[in-house]
């Protein structure tokens, strides 16, 4: 059974606990849970079982079996365990499974038993073996603590930034501690261990003896300990059946009582992380072998057949549902029920609440209680009562009611048996919607995640776009379909959804060994700057050069040319450039500019500029035999860009003149840097200083890139007639103007300037308008 203290609320009133069933488990386990290694993730997380782990036979039929289930017992994945002896299982905050082996190796698997990576807890652990281990969570991340056969502790507070810490030695320790726990105090992780009747605290530098305040001198030896979910409270169980409870700092005692059993419990966890004052004993009898999972606001209890939740009844629910309650929420609930029966008692209940001026409090109680209820029918009943009460209030803010309705709809969806994430209202608020969506994505429940995003009206970037990107990255890993089918399916689903990066999806395909699929997916990437680096990484230099030339970005062409020169021998390099006149012309310009730089008297004055410039000039002279390396040009451009970004316009102008940077390139550099520092006033002055050699369309593009539509409109008015349509497309105005004029020629002109990858919504709008004109 489960034994627990009946605690009191901060007001001193007795608080009541409730246990209800979450699910009837679907896993059909044949083994007892006590015969398996078990780990269950908090916040309604998955359950991992390692079966046959304790058998000594080495026959294939007796190999351990790792299985992962949802909280409702629906199988997610399983795999035969072929590695070393596992000592402990545990879940990370991101729901990865940690398998801690006897040799100190920690293997990490995802929810579908797919191996991700591994790390070691160090040579000392390898030599002395792991005797016990614990997985814990702090503000730093997920940590692992190890007790070795040499009776020494080692730990890391963050497995994603592995820094192993060997804890101080306990003087005279000749045997394993009877029990131990990991505590987190003032952002420092420490270990509390018990040896007989003595408690020791290990921090980074020392080992100290501690005594719980107020503990009975006849309490006996410590045999079990438990830390609360939030690390604030500690419970100690002794061999005389005594339980001491207090703060984890061991500075305050909250209570002490004796049980009628002395055998150490298999598990001891905290029910709630609140102030406990012990006034007796409460017991729940369990029919079969069970496992306890501490949660933020209660305890999950699962066995081979059921999964239940034990929690403290919230004050609002208690006030409404206790027998003969006269709380305003209870009266409002009765009033609404009587109203549905068309009984005049509804008016009597309402009048009683209004006479006490408690109608707003009654509505608030019903809304709050609805959030904590598990049964949808009870939720609806309470929300109907709240809605009924709101009708008689002039100025009750609707936000809490609307928010609760939305949150409950989301919670009810994920509580579904097939989804199996039994988050409570309090856990959901702590976890946040962003993390919940991440967990749905991890389970590959993409349609549900998208529906929730649409229902909650989350931004594209925060919601649907991010989920579709995850879906696409998963899709490219499926090898049962051809590259053409997968690429087409991805484009059909994603289209030009804002925030989607086809290059990231292509990179995932390449990492999975599907180079041809990566190339096909990259075809849908509208930004050449994202295509080219990945093509170079994939050794597709010729294709990268073609894409760079198509983009018209000279820097991008320079990048590919430099890559080709370093990758190919001299003869092949020049043969490749002969086939690309644009690249060959740019290469010759860069080479000629390099020669001019070395011979220019301007070097003397420019070399007085900055340390970076001096380094540049020295590098130019040092590379006299390799003048055709374009990164010399890059470093100069980067210097100019950096000077403008720092507001040093005079120095930038001097380098522009001294090194004869092309006018077009300098204007691009300057307006890009000014936009990055959001110096719109300086940009306007610069645009009026003389006629722009690049026109004013780039001003529009850069302003829109930095989401400044107001400034973009100024420059759109100054573009040439040939560029006006493109400028309006950038401002999402061209289509509207053409449609308003009902001019088919203008519409066709706009269509000719659109691309399917970036302007599909504009194309669709114009085609609809043309169809309407034809009908007339």
From TrEMBL:
Gene that specifies this protein: VPS16
Which InterPro entries does the entry mention? VPS16, Vps16_C, Vps16_C_sf, Vps16_N
Source domain of life is: Eukaryota
The Vps16 N-terminal domain, residue ranges: 13-403
So which residues are the signal peptide here? none
Q: Which family does it belong to?
A: Belongs to the VPS16 family.
Q: How does it assemble?
A: Core component of at least two putative endosomal tethering complexes, the homotypic fusion and vacuole protein sorting (HOPS) complex and the class C core vacuole/endosome tethering (CORVET) complex. Their common core is composed of the class C Vps proteins VPS11, VPS16, VPS18 and VPS33A, which in HOPS further associates with VPS39 and VPS41 and in CORVET with VPS8 and TGFBRAP1. Interacts with RAB5C. Interacts with STX17, MON1B. Associates with adapter protein complex 3 (AP-3) and clathrin:AP-3 complexes.
GO biological process terms, alphabetically, are:
endosomal transport; intracellular protein transport; vacuole fusion, non-autophagic
| Family annotation (Gene3D superfamilies) | Vps16, C-terminal region
Q: Which organism is it from?
A: Terrapene triunguis
Task: Spell out the protein name for this chain.
Answer: Vacuolar protein sorting-associated protein 16 homolog
Cellular compartment(s):
Late endosome membrane; Lysosome membrane
Membrane topology classification:
Peripheral membrane protein
Q: Which GO terms describe its molecular function?
A: actin binding
Task: Please explain the role this protein plays, according to its UniProt record.
Answer: Plays a role in vesicle-mediated protein trafficking to lysosomal compartments including the endocytic membrane transport and autophagic pathways. Believed to act as a core component of the putative HOPS and CORVET endosomal tethering complexes.
Q: Which UniProt keywords apply?
A: Coiled coil, Endosome, Lysosome, Membrane, Protein transport, Transport
Carries keyword Coiled coil? yes
User: Boundaries of each Vps16 C-terminal domain copy?
Assistant: 500-590, 606-772
Assign the protein's first listed, main location to one coarse class: membrane
């Amino acid at each position: 059974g489960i034994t627990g203290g009946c605690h009191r609320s901060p007001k001193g009133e007795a608080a009541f606990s409730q246990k209800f069933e979450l699910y009837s488990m679907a896993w059909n386990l044949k083994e007892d849970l006590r015969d398996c290694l078990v780990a269950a993730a908090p916040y309604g997380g998955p359950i991992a079982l390692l079966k046959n782990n304790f058998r000594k036979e080495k026959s294939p039929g007796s190999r351990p079996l790792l299985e992962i289930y949802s909280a409702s017992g629906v199988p997610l994945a399983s795999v035969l365990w072929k590695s070393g002896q596992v000592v402990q299982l545990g879940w990370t905050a991101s729901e990865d499974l940690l398998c801690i082996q006897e040799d100190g190796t920690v293997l990490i698997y995802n929810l579908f038993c797919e191996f991700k990576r591994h790390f070691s807890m160090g040579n000392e652990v390898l030599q002395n073996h792991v005797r016990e281990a614990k997985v814990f969570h702090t503000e730093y991340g997920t940590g692992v603590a190890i007790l070795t056969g040499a009776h020494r502790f080692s730990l890391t507070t963050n497995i994603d930034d592995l820094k192993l810490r060997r804890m101080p030695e306990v003087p005279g320790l000749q045997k394993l501690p009877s029990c131990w726990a990991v505590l987190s105090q003032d952002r420092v992780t420490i270990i509390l261990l018990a040896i007989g009747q003595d408690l020791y605290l290990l921090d980074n530098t020392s080992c100290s003896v501690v005594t719980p305040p107020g503990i009975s001198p006849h309490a006996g030896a410590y045999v079990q300990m438990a830390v609360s979910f939030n690390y604030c409270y500690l419970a100690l169980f002794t061999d005389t059946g005594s339980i001491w409870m207090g703060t984890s700092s061991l500075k305050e005692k909250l209570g002490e009582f004796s049980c009628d059993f002395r055998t150490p419990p298999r598990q001891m966890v905290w029910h709630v992380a609140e102030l406990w004052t012990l006034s007796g004993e409460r017991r729940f009898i369990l029919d079969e072998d069970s496992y306890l999972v501490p949660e933020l606001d209660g305890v999950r209890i699962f066995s081979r057949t059921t999964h239940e939740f034990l929690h403290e009844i919230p004050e609002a629910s208690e006030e409404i549902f206790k027998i003969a309650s006269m709380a305003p929420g209870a009266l409002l609930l009765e009033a609404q029920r009587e109203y549905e029966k068309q009984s005049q008692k509804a008016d009597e209940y309402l009048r009683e609440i209004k006479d006490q001026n408690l109608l707003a409090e009654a509505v608030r109680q019903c809304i709050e209680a609805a959030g904590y209820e598990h049964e949808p029918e009870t939720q609806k009943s309470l929300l109907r009562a709240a809605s009924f009460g709101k009708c008689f209030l002039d100025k009750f803010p609707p936000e809490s009611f609307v928010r609760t309705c939305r949150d409950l709809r989301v919670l009810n969806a994920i509580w579904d048996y097939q989804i199996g994430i039994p988050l409570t209202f309090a856990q959901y608020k702590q976890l946040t919607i962003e993390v919940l969506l991440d967990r749905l994505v991890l389970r590959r429940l993409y349609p549900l995640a998208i529906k929730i995003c649409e229902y909650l009206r989350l931004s594209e970037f925060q919601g649907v776009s991010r989920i579709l990107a995850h879906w696409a990255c998963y899709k490219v890993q499926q090898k049962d379909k051809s590259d053409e089918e997968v690429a087409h399916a991805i484009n059909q689903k994603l289209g030009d959804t804002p925030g989607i990066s086809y290059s990231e999806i292509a990179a995932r395909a390449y990492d999975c060994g599907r180079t041809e699929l990566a190339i096909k997916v990259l075809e849908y990437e509208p930004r050449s700057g994202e295509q080219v680096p990945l093509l170079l990484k994939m050794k597709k230099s010729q294709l990268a050069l073609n894409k760079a030339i198509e983009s018209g970005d000279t820097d991008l062409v320079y990048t590919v040319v430099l890559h080709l020169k370093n990758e190919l021998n001299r003869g092949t390099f020049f043969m490749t450039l002969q086939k690309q006149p644009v690249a060959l012309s740019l290469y010759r310009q860069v080479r000629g500019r390099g020669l001019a730089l070395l011979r220019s008297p301007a070097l003397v004055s420019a070399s007085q500029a900055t340390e970076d410039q001096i380094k540049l000039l020295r590098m130019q002279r040092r590379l006299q035999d390799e003048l055709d390396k374009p990164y010399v040009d890059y470093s100069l451009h980067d210097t100019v860009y950096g000077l403008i970004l720092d507001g040093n316009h005079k120095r930038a102008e001097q380098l522009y003149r001294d090194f004869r940077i092309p006018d077009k390139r300098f204007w691009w550099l300057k307006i890009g840097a000014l936009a990055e520092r959001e110096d719109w006033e300086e940009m306007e002055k610069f645009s009026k200083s003389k006629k722009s050699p690049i026109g004013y369309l780039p001003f529009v593009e850069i302003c829109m890139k930095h989401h400044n539509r107001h400034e973009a409109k100024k420059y759109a008015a100054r573009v040439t007639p040939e560029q006006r349509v493109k400028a309006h497309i950038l401002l999402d105005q061209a289509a509207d103007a053409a449609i308003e004029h009902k001019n088919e020629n203008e519409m066709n002109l706009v269509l000719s300037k659109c691309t399917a990858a970036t302007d599909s919504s504009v194309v669709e709008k114009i085609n609809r308008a043309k169809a309407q004109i034809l009908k007339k």
